[in-house]
Design a protein that fits this description.
Number of strands: 3
Order of helices and strands: HEEEH
Low-confidence stretches: none
Mean pLDDT: 93
Strand order of the largest sheet: 1-2-3
Helix content: 25-40%
Radius of gyration: 14 Å
Largest sheet: 3 strands, antiparallel
Number of helices: 2
Distance between the termini: 30 Å
């Protein structure tokens, strides 16, 4: 399957019906550490300099923030109705 263009990804995330969260495990200082991360359409997303969130609710809020940023950019480019 071919890679989606930036504009296609923008519309894909902007029209995501639900924001969710999942955990990712990382090794930090020799220990496994779980971090929450926001998800849209089953894919992990990043808002700002880090994708890590302390709680599930914070991760969902970051995913919603990312979706809103995508909507704003897509509308500005004329990809979605204003």
């Amino acid at each position: 399957m071919p890679e989606l263009t930036h504009d296609q990804k923008l519309v894909e995330y902007a029209t995501a019906p639900k924001a969710s969260a999942g955990t990712i495990c990382q090794i930090e200082n020799g220990d496994f550490v779980k971090h929450w991360c926001g998800k849209l359409r089953g894919k992990f997303i990043q808002v700002g300099p880090t994708w890590k969130a302390a709680t599930k609710q914070q991760a969902i809020e970051k995913a919603r923030e990312f979706r809103e940023q995508c909507r704003t950019e897509a509308k500005a480019k004329g990809l979605l109705p204003a």
